[in-house]
Amino acid sequence: MANNSPALTGNSQPQHQAAAAAAQQQQQQQCGGGGATKPAISGKQGNVLPLWGNEKTMNLNPMILTNILSSPYFKVQLYELKTYHEVVDEIYFKVTHVEPWEKGSRKTAGQTGMCGGVRGVGTGGIVSTAFCLLYKLFTLKLTRKQVMGLITHTDSPYIRALGFMYIRYTQPPTDLWDWFESFLDDEEFFML
Q1: Is residue 78 part of a domain?
Q2: Total domains, the chain
Q3: What distance in Å separates the CA atoms of residue 136 and residue 79, rounded to the nearest whole number?
Q4: Helix (H, G, I), strand (E, B) or coil at 54
Q5: How buried is 66 (Cβ within 10 angstroms: 0-12 exposed, 13-18 middle, 19+ buried)?
Q6: pLDDT for residue 44
Q7: What is its main location (predicted)?
Q8: 121 and 63 in contact (C-beta within 8 Å)?
Q9: What are 19-45's pLDDT values in tens digits?
Q10: Residue 112 binned pLDDT confidence (cut-offs 50, 70, 90)
């Protein structure tokens, strides 16, 4: 029987600590480097929500994020909104669909495959109000209570949709079922 004690293997730390450190390093690399939150931290406790993945990009497609950040709507109008309630009001009055691009703003004629508009991000266009507001919510670093307020909101299905999208882009994949399960039989209708 082999004895794997640190004194006999020549290692200064026990093997279980070394394995844990290696696993943690691998998680950080998978999440986009040192700036990413570790998905092992569960978001099931307290009012503070962990952010999973890249803390700067919200895990958005790079083309969508670039268009959001360069959008006059995001840079000027949404810059002035400072509170959660102001952003929720803006969603109520401005969002009419939750697709990434404004309708008719993308040139897809003659393109095929992934560039033909099938996947939604092959070529740019004018980024939608919904995605600008989704990223604005991300900049506010919402609490669990605020996210619950979004997904249970009764005034607009688009407020709820952006709440679910916020969860999808920011929460650990292992927690998604806990968030979505009780809403799977929801029959509220809205236009994509």
Answers
A1: yes
A2: 1
A3: 8
A4: strand
A5: middle
A6: 53
A7: nucleus
A8: yes
A9: 444 444 444 444 444 333 333 334 456
A10: low
